[in-house]
Design goal:
184 residues, mainly alpha
Length: 184
């Protein structure tokens, strides 16, 4: 009985040691740098900028209309009957409220448009990272762009492999911030 128990414990220890002995490969990539190198990202950014410009022009037009109507009201308000003056003030207040509501809706629409256009870019980058990690035997790939990796070996940075996988030519040198090792 004692021998069986000793053999079982020894088997468990040997199995546990063999699992810990096989080191797991971990890669890292600066996702923000990778995304900025992708042509799809540049096209998405341009589309978002164009959309924002359209929204901004609409707000400016609405504000110009308000300013014009307010200037007219200032000039003529002394000569208007009280009922007409109150009606014009209400009209100006309503226009101002519509402008504010439009600005809020425009901000929401801008955020939705940004998310809508960036999602396919991030998905493509993720698929490429997944493929490179699998091809090179990495168990995990960490994103260093968010600053959560405290230390990493430069040799485990797979951004060059992912850039190659995506077919990006002549990339501007990607910057993968790598935290320095511990001080001795």
């Amino acid at each position: 009985m004692k021998n069986t128990l000793k053999l079982a414990v020894a088997g468990i220890v040997i199995t546990a040691c063999s699992f810990t002995a096989s080191a797991q490969k971990i890669a890292h990539v600066n996702l923000d740098s990778l995304i900025s190198l992708m042509p799809e990202s540049k096209a998405a950014q341009q589309s978002v900028q164009n959309y924002a410009k359209q929204l901004e022009e609409q707000v400016k037009a609405m504000q110009a209309e308000l300013q014009t109507k307010y200037a007219e009201f200032q000039e003529k308000s002394k000569d208007l009957a009280e009922v007409v003056r109150a009606s014009k003030e209400k009209e100006l207040n309503d226009l101002n409220t519509r402008i504010q509501e439009f600005q809020q809706q425009a901000q929401t629409d801008y955020q939705k448009k940004t998310a809508e256009l960036s999602k396919p870019v991030y998905e493509k980058a993720k698929r490429a990272i997944d493929a490179v990690a699998k091809e090179n035997g990495y168990r995990y790939a960490l994103d260093t762009s968010n600053g959560m990796v405290l230390y990493s070996e430069p040799a485990d940075d797979i951004i060059a492999l992912v850039i190659k996988k995506l077919g990006i030519t002549n990339p501007v040198a990607p910057t993968s911030p790598v935290a320095p090792g511990p001080k001795k």
